[in-house]
From TrEMBL:
An example Gene Ontology molecular-function term: enzyme regulator activity
GO biological process: regulation of protein catabolic process; ubiquitin-dependent protein catabolic process
Any single Pfam family the record assigns to this protein: PCI
Family of this protein: Belongs to the proteasome subunit S3 family.
Taxon lineage: Eukaryota, Fungi, Dikarya, Ascomycota, Pezizomycotina
Protein name per the record: PCI domain-domain-containing protein
PROSITE patterns tied to this protein: PCI
Signal peptide interval: none
Length: 606
C-alpha cells in the first residue's frame, strides 16, 4: 500500500521535518557516548552510517559531534605498554630488599629472617657482577658513617675502590627532584643518616664470596674470607650465627682450590683447621646449631681430602652432631661418616649411614650431584658386603649415565669374571679416582674371586685346581689352592680340598631355610623399622604435639611433623566468624528484631 513502510506500518512522525523523508548522508558524525541521550525538538537528527575500511585507515582526524565528543577509531585506542625494568636495577633492588629482613632479625632476635635472606642467594647468584655489588654498596653506605671503612674493604675485594659512597638510587633521585615542602618550623626536611648494622656487612660479604668463587678467583676469595672470619670473631654477636656458618663454608671451599691441592700436607686446607676448630668450640659453647653442624661437616671433609682417617674418627667420637641441624647438613654428615666407616672396613655401619644419606638428600635437581656421589659409594659398599645391587638403581633417568661404569663393575662381580673386572677397572680408572672410590674398588678383586669360586662350586661337584686357575686367570695352582682354602674357611663355599689329587669337591647344597640366614635377614629388617619408629617418636616428643603418637606407625616422613599445619588459619577463621556473629546481632538489635529476652536477659517483672 502506498504511504506505508515495507513492514506494513505507517511512517512514524519524528517531529523534525514534518513527515518528510530523512536525508541519508555519509558524514562521520556519530552519537556515541553522550550522543545516546534523547533528541530535543527543533534539532536536526543525523543517521549514523558506519564508515568504510578506507575511511578508518585515513589519516585525517575525525570531526567532533554536536556534544564535542570525538569518534575513536581502532587506531586511536590506548594500548597497554609493558614497562621494561632494567635487570641491573632489579638485581640491586633484590639485594637491598634483604636488608629489611636482617634488620628485623636483629630487632626481634629471630634467626628465621636471616635464613630467609640467605635463601635468596640462590636466585641472586647468576646475576651478581662487580658493578651490581659496587652499586648496592655505594647506595647503602653513606660516606660519613663509621661503617664507611667496611664498605671500602668490600669494594676493594671486587676491584671497585674508586666507587664513591653515599650515591642515590634512581628512585631516590626522582623523589629528590621534586620541590621539597618546608616544615612548620621553617626548616627543610633532612634525611636522617642510618647506621648500617654488621649483619648487612657480612651478608654483602657472602655475596662477594659467591661472586669470587663463581669467577674462580680463589686466592682473592681466600684472603677476603679470612677478613670476614676475623671480623665475625671480633664482633662477637649472636645474630651473626646463621651468617657465620656460610662464611666458613666458602672459606673452606676457597682453600680446597689453592695449590698445593689436597691430599698434599702443605695444602691451605690444613692451615685453616685451627680456625675451624676454634669456631666449633665457640659454637658448642653458644649452642649455635647452624655453625656447629656446618663446621663439623667441613672438618670431616678436610680430613678425608688429606686421608687423615684416624683424626676424622677422633672428631666423630669426641663431638656430638646436633640433632636439630638442617636436613642438608645431616645428609652431608651421614655421607662423610659412611665413607669413614667404609675405609675402616666397617661395611655394615657404612651401609646404614650411606643409605640414610641418600634418603635424606633433597629430591630437587639442585642436589642431584650429591645423590649420585652417595649412591656410587653405596654401590661399592654393597659389593664389598657380598650383596648385588638392584638393577632398578641403574635404570633411573638421573642415574643411568653417571652409574654406567659401576653397572659394568657390578656385572663383572656378579658372575665372578676376573678378566671383565680388571678390564672395567682399567678403562674407568680416572672416573673411579675422581669419585674417590678407587681404593675401595681395589678390594673387590678378592670378592670377584670368591664369587667365581662359589659359582664353580655350584656348577661342578668336583673341579681341578688347574681349571680353577684357568677360569679365574690366576698365576699358579698354588694361588688357586690358597684362595679355595680361604673361601672354605670363611664359609663362602661348602666344599673339601684334596691337595694330593689337586681338586675341589663340593658338598650337597641343603635347604637354605634350615640355616640362620633367613632369620638374620628378617632381624635386620625389623631393626630398621624399629629405628625409624624411635626417630619418629623423638621428633614428636621434641615438638610437644600430643595426638600424633597414634599415627606414628603410618608415618613416612617424620620431619614433616614439626609444626601443626594451618593452625593459625583456623584461629583466624574462628575469630572472623565470631566477629560476623557480633555484627549480625548488633544489626538485628538496631532494627528491633531482638530484645533483651532474646539475648538472655534477667526477665524482671515476671
Amino acid at each position: 500500500m502506498p504511504g506505508k513502510t515495507p513492514n506494513g506500518k505507517e511512517p512514524v512522525e519524528n517531529g523534525i521535518r514534518n513527515n518528510q523523508d530523512v536525508d541519508m548522508t555519509d558524514e562521520k558524525s556519530s552519537l556515541k557516548g553522550k550522543g545516546k541521550k534523547g533528541v530535543k525538538e527543533g534539532e536536526d537528527m543525523t543517521v549514523v552510517v558506519p564508515p568504510s575500511k578506507t575511511t578508518k585507515q585515513s589519516s585525517a582526524p575525525p570531526p567532533a559531534d554536536t556534544d564535542g565528543d570525538v569518534d575513536m577509531d581502532d587506531s586511536d585506542k590506548v594500548e597497554d605498554v609493558e614497562v621494561k625494568v632494567d635487570p641491573v636495577t632489579q638485581a640491586i633492588s633484590d639485594v637491598k630488599s634483604n636488608f629489611a629482613l636482617l634488620d628485623r632479625a636483629v630487632a626481634l632476635f629471630d634467626a628465621r629472617f636471616s635464613l630467609r635472606a640467605l635463601r635468596s642467594i640462590s636466585s641472586l647468584r647468576k646475576r651478581l657482577t662487580p658493578d651490581i655489588l659496587s652499586q648496592a654498596i655505594a647506595e647503602s653506605y653513606p660516606a660519613t658513617t663509621s661503617s664507611a671503612n667496611v664498605a671500602r674493604h668490600l669494594l676493594a675485594a671486587i676491584g671497585r675502590e674508586d666507587v664513591t659512597l653515599g650515591q642515590q638510587s634512581s628512585a631516590e633521585m626522582e623523589v629528590d627532584s621534586e620541590p621539597k615542602v618546608p616544615a612548620k618550623n621553617g626548616n627543610k626536611k633532612e634525611k636522617e643518616v642510618k647506621e648500617i648494622i654488621p649483619e648487612i656487612d657480612i651478608f654483602l660479604g657472602i655475596l662477594i664470596q659467591v661472586h669470587l668463587f663463581d669467577s674462580k678467583q680463589y686466592q682473592k676469595g681466600a684472603n677476603f674470607s679470612k677478613y670476614l672470619s676475623d671480623r665475625i670473631h671480633a664482633l662477637n654477636r649472636r645474630t651473626l650465627d646463621p651468617l657465620s656458618a656460610k662464611v666458613y663454608f666458602y672459606y673452606s671451599l676457597f682453600c680446597e682450590q689453592l695449590a698445593p691441592l689436597p691430599p698434599s700436607p702443605q695444602s691451605p686446607i690444613v692451615a685453616i683447621r685451627p680456625t675451624l676448630l676454634a669456631a666449633l668450640r665457640t659454637a658448642v659453647l653458644r649452642k649455635d646449631i647452624d655453625t656447629q653442624a656446618s663446621v663439623i661437616v667441613l672438618l670431616l671433609r678436610s680430613y678425608l681430602l688429606t686421608s687423615h682417617i684416624s683424626q676424622a674418627d677422633l672428631l666423630v667420637s669426641h663431638t656430638q652432631f646436633p640433632e636439630n641441624a638442617a636436613n642438608n647438613q645431616v645428609a652431608r654428615f651421614l655421607y662423610y661418616l659412611g665413607r669413614i666407616r667404609a675405609i675402616q672396613l666397617r661395611y655394615t655401619e657404612a651401609h646404614e649411614h650411606l643409605t640414610a644419606a641418600t634418603r635424606k638428600a633433597p629430591a630437587s635437581s639442585c642436589a642431584l650431584g650429591f645423590a649420585q656421589t652417595a649412591t656410587k659409594v653405596l654401590l661399592v659398599v654393597e659389593l664389598l658386603m657380598g650383596d648385588i645391587p638392584e638393577r632398578a638403581t641403574f635404570r633411573a633417568a638421573t642415574m643411568e649415565q653417571a652409574l654406567h661404569p659401576y653397572f659394568l663393575l657390578v656385572q663383572a662381580v656378579r658372575v665372578g669374571n676376573l678378566e671383565d673386572f680388571e678390564t672395567t677397572l682399567a678403562e674407568h680408572v680416572d672416573t673411579f679416582k675422581r669419585d674417590g672410590t678407587y681404593t675401595l674398588i681395589l678390594r673387590l678383586r678378592q670378592n670377584v674371586i670368591k664369587t667365581g669360586i662359589r659359582m664353580m662350586s655350584l656348577s661342578y661337584s668336583r673341579i681341578s685346581l688347574r681349571d680353577i686357575c684357568i677360569r679365574l686367570h690366576l698365576g699358579s695352582e698354588e694361588s688357586a689352592e690358597y684362595i679355595v682354602a680361604k673361601a672354605i674357611r670363611d664359609g663362602v663355599i661348602e666344599a673339601t680340598l684334596d691337595r694330593e689329587k689337586g681338586f675341589m669337591k663340593s658338598k650337597e647344597v641343603g635347604d637354605v631355610y634350615a640355616t640362620r640366614e633367613p632369620g638374620e635377614a628378617f632381624h635386620d629388617r625389623i631393626r630398621a623399622c624399629l629405628a625409624l619408629h624411635d626417630e619418629s617418636v623423638k621428633v614428636c616428643d621434641s615438638t610437644f604435639m600430643p595426638g600424633f603418637f597414634d599415627c606414628i606407625t603410618n608415618l613416612s616422613f617424620p620431619q614433616a611433623m614439626r609444626f601443626p599445619m594451618n593452625q593459625h588459619r583456623l584461629e583466624l577463621k574462628n575469630a572472623q566468624e565470631a566477629r560476623e556473629r557480633e555484627r549480625e546481632m548488633a544489626k538485628e538489635i538496631q532494627e528491633g528484631d531482638l530484645d533483651d529476652d532474646d539475648l538472655g536477659g534477667d526477665f524482671e517483672g515476671m
